[in-house]
Please model this.
Amino acid sequence: MKSPLLKENISTSQNLSTIDIFEKAARKAGQTLIDDFGEIENSQVQSKDVGDFVTTSDIKTEKILLEILQDSYPNATYITEESDEIKGDKEIIVIDPIDGTTNFIHGIPFVGIVIGRVFEGEITDGIIFNPILNELYWATKGGGAWCNDKKLHVSNRDNMSNCIIGTSVPHANRGYKNYLNEIDSVAKNCAGLRSTGSAAIDLSLVASGKTDAFWQRNLNLWDICSGVLIVNEAGGKVTQPNGKEWTVNSSDILASNLFVHEQIVEKL
Ligand code: IPD
Ligand code: CA
Ligand code: CA
Model:
């Protein structure tokens, strides 16, 4: 088992794995977020749209991530939330510098730096790093899912009525026609709904077996790419909410512990 947290002198070691490089970038950028979180009142907030904020911290964080990642992957394509696509070769690095910006500007510590690698439509590596809580969720295809040095497993609840299920209540212009019906239908048939304000963190909770499932619509690849791999590697299942295959082009997601997947599909 590899434990990124225990690795010393990470910046000087050769032959770093993809996860090592992602961790190195996220820890450097994460220090900026820790500093800014402490001085949250001073952070300038620009509005991209109603209820969709971008802070100076998002922009600074993305710049640091890109600098470090481009050093190791100079020819990759970069798909990031805060910049235009950087076109490169078939190796794609996906970045969300802060997933949970609204939490961040309210001083709520549910935030994640998301970095994923996609190759030929497959997510091969991903991390979600919460610098405030010092939690590094990470997975490589076929290598299991981890939080720091602890292996992750989804829950084993097999009856939806005992399950805690994550979602997000759409705000501002994010609403869609059926969302209140979906929430009603799932809430009536489970033990409770939860919403962290970060889709990446919501997915890490499913992978950790703390919640049993999560669904949301209208997401971007940078919100969920690492989380999809981490849930799958923790033994869970990811599809679209209607049960169809999830691909990197899907914006709607249902992730679960596998056992209650079909029960939730029936309610959505
Ligand atoms: C948002 C978070 C949130 C989800 C929104 C996303 P951001 O990302 O993932 O949980 O409900 O749809 O846009 O803006 O904080 O990077
Ligand atoms: Ca996001
Ligand atoms: Ca973001």
In short: The mean pLDDT is 91. Residues 51 and 171 are 7 Å apart (CA to CA). The helical segments are 18-38, 56-72, 101-105, 179-187, 199-207, 221-233, 261-267.
